[in-house]
From TrEMBL, chain A:
GO terms for biological process: transmembrane transport. This is Inner membrane ABC transporter permease protein YcjP. The chain crosses the membrane at residues 12-37, 74-101, 113-135, 155-177, 198-223, 260-278. Its main location: membrane. Keywords: Cell membrane, Membrane, Transmembrane, Transmembrane helix, Transport. It is found in: Cell membrane. Belongs to the binding-protein-dependent transport system permease family. GO terms for cellular component: plasma membrane. Residues 75-278 form the ABC transmembrane type-1 domain.
Automatic annotation (TrEMBL), chain B:
Gene3D superfamilies: MetI-like. GO terms for biological process: transmembrane transport. Its main location: membrane. The keyword Iron-sulfur does not apply. It is found in: Cell membrane. Keywords: Cell membrane, Membrane, Transmembrane, Transmembrane helix, Transport. The chain crosses the membrane at residues 9-31, 73-95, 107-128, 157-176, 220-243, 263-288. PROSITE patterns: ABC_TM1. This is sn-glycerol-3-phosphate transport system permease protein UgpA. InterPro entries: ABC_transporter_permease (IPR051393), MetI-like (IPR000515), MetI-like_sf (IPR035906). Residues 69-285 form the ABC transmembrane type-1 domain. Belongs to the binding-protein-dependent transport system permease family. One of its GO terms (cellular component) is plasma membrane.
Length: 293, 296
């Protein structure tokens, strides 16, 4: 059979597309995989060809990162802060989003636009004012209690994380609650359920899928965040990304590379695992929220 | 208790905690940025002294600030153009062509977006390392030693190296955004166009681009806001503004002045300028790109 000219350009076009796709995929996979390989290399291996396969599984890198560089502590702090922040966020945001999207009352419009304006406030701008505010409050607390409470405090960091995530979360949950028909509430009301009972037993359970998206997004946000953690935790209780920054600075100065890459693996492994499991929901959820910090 | 009263109580209990947190940790700090920018505060004294717009006058002649301004604008332009072109290209391919393993590519392309900026800084430090970094060693394997550079050590190159990392980080995110709006374009449009003999390129510029235009405009605003923010986080973690301040960007300089240097008033004045600049730029871009929305 004779091949027409058209199908030949088609083949070339297809070839070009696949080359482009594979090039981008390689440029993402290779650096990430390289870090994983580097995390099990011995220090001497870093002076040769960077593309060499690790000679063995040098697990000491991880042991050193956990024991000497305190990554274990940082990991614990990160876990505590992330879980606390997610809990606070859900407890505060769910009722607020429900009420703001399904009740109209005096000031409800104003509060709704107030939340939308909050979407544009960026953590990077307000990190220092928040630090100064906590410093101020701490001075007052110290005169009363004799110790400082708010800086270097994991709960405080979690509370502030939750607060900064509120606008986006309320916005996302509201847009879901708005789509629900009001029949459910009417039925619950006829059954004699009060407002609280209706919310907890009828409306919130239906928001399940949205809640998972909210948790997923904010987990990534809180787990990866470092500028607030760096600013508000100058002393102790530092979180994982800040610990990694310290580790990177220290190990680079000491030309001890293995533990540094081990630290990077410790930071990114939880997010990667979570992403692989839930990637479909994440990219779907993004099209609902469509916003980024 | 009357029905009305219990309704108000319910509303109050549900909304009040969110409002209090928002006001305490979002609104007041934002107002503080603007208020503090009018004060001379910090350095060695802890006194706040009202100086009006003096901080802004000082900024005008601060060459370090001007340089961070130039760097930021350069980054916004480069990152926006490259990310947009690459992301739209791959979004069009993955949503319109029958690709084997398209789901695999989509999943892989999104990975950089879930990594912490600190990890990305670490990855790119390894890529850009002058002696045994990945980039230079690839050039060595290809016998292209002339292309080897001190990617993070050369004052003129470093800002482009930062841009490279930012684009790498952003492609997947914007690709997924474009894909989601392309998915809602009816397939019949493309069928009709290809019956008429329109080429793929023609279909792309004639159908796809106009129909996702609104989505593109939204992402242009995102490019501005997120590049300003992420360039700060990346520069802080990767280069520390160096070498010799040549990779300093807007918010990095602000943070440096306000937190590291403790000149709070001056730092906040920088914050105000950046804030106003980013809003003005977003508004201008939004105005220029305004087209009649095509309904379909």
């Amino acid at each position: 059979m004779k091949k027409s000219n058209g199908s030949q350009t088609d083949t070339l076009y297809k070839l070009f597309i696949y080359i482009a796709l594979i090039t981008l995929a390689i440029s993402i996979i290779v650096p990430v995989a390289w870090v994983f390989f580097a995390s099990i290399k011995q220090n001497a291996e870093f002076y040769g060809n960077p593309w060499s396969i690790p000679l063995g599984f040098h697990v000491e890198n991880f042991i050193e990162a956990f024991q000497e560089a305190n990554m274990g502590n940082y990991l614990f702090n990160s876990a505590v802060v992330t879980v606390l922040a997610l809990a606070i966020l859900l407890i505060v945001a769910l009722p607020a989003a429900y009420v703001l999207s399904r009740f109209s009352f005096r000031g409800s419009k104003m509060i709704n636009s107030f939340v939308k304006v909050g979407l544009f406030i960026n953590i990077s701008y307000i990190a220092v004012p928040i630090f100064l505010m906590l410093l101020d409050w701490d001075t007052v607390i110290r005169t009363i209690l004799g110790e400082e409470l708010l800086l270097n405090n994991r709960f405080m960091l979690a509370l502030i994380y939750a607060s900064t995530a509120l606008p986006f979360t309320i916005y996302l949950l509201s847009s879901y609650f708005q789509t629900l028909p009001s029949d459910f509430e009417e039925a619950a009301s006829i059954d004699g359920a009060g407002y609280f009972k209706t919310m907890f037993s009828v409306m919130l359970p239906m928001a399940g899928p949205s809640i998972i998206i909210v948790i997923l997004f904010n987990f990534l946000l809180f787990w990866n965040e470092y500028i607030l953690a760096l600013t508000l935790m100058p002393g102790e209780n530092q979180t994982l990304p800040v610990g990694l920054l310290n580790l990177m600075a220290a190990e680079r100065a000491a030309a001890n590379y293995g533990p540094m890459y081990a630290g990077m693996v410790i930071v990114m492994l939880p997010t990667l695992i979570l992403y692989i499991i839930l990637q479909k929901r994440l990219t779907q959820g993004m099209t609902v929220g469509g916003l980024k910090g | 208790m009357s029905k009305k009263k219990s309704r108000n109580l319910f509303i109050g209990v549900c909304v009040a905690p969110a409002l209090i947190l928002l006001i305490l940790f979002m609104v007041i700090p934002t107002i503080e940025v603007f208020r503090m920018s009018l004060y001379q505060w910090g350095g060695f004294s802890n006194n706040q002294q009202f100086v009006g717009f003096n901080n802004f006058k000082l900024l005008w002649n601060d060459m370090d600030f001007i340089r961070s301004f130039q760097n930021s604008i350069l980054l916004i332009v480069i990152v926006a153009i490259f990310t947009f072109v690459i992301a739209v290209f791959f979004a069009a391919i993955l949503s319109k062509e029958k690709i084997r393993g398209s789901n695999f590519f989509r999943v892989i392309f999104y990975i950089p977006n879930i990594l912490s900026i600190v990890v990305i800084a670490g990855i790119f430090s390894a890529i850009y390392d002058p002696s045994n970094g990945l980039l230079n060693s690839i050039f060595h394997l290809l016998s292209l030693e002339t292309l080897q550079q001190k990617w993070l050590g050369n004052q003129t190159i470093v800002i482009y190296s930062v841009a490279g990392a930012l684009v790498w980080q952003a492609i997947g995110y914007y690709m997924v955004m474009y894909m989601s709006s392309m998915a809602s374009i009816p397939a019949s449009y493309y069928e009709a166009a290809s019956l008429e003999g329109a080429s793929k390129m023609k279909q792309f510029t004639g159908i796809t681009l106009p129909l996702i235009w609104n989505n593109i405009r939204t992402t242009l605003t995102f490019f501005i806001i997120s590049t300003i923010n992420l360039s700060f986080l990346l520069v802080k973690a990767m280069t520390g503004g160096g070498p010799d301040g040549s990779s300093e960007v807007f918010l990095f300089y602000m943070y440096d002045q306000a937190y590291t240097n403790s000149t709070y008033g001056y730092g906040m004045a920088i914050g105000v300028v950046v804030f106003i600049f980013s809003f003005a730029l977003a508004a201008i871009v939004n105005f220029i790109t305004k087209r009649d929305v095509l309904e379909y």
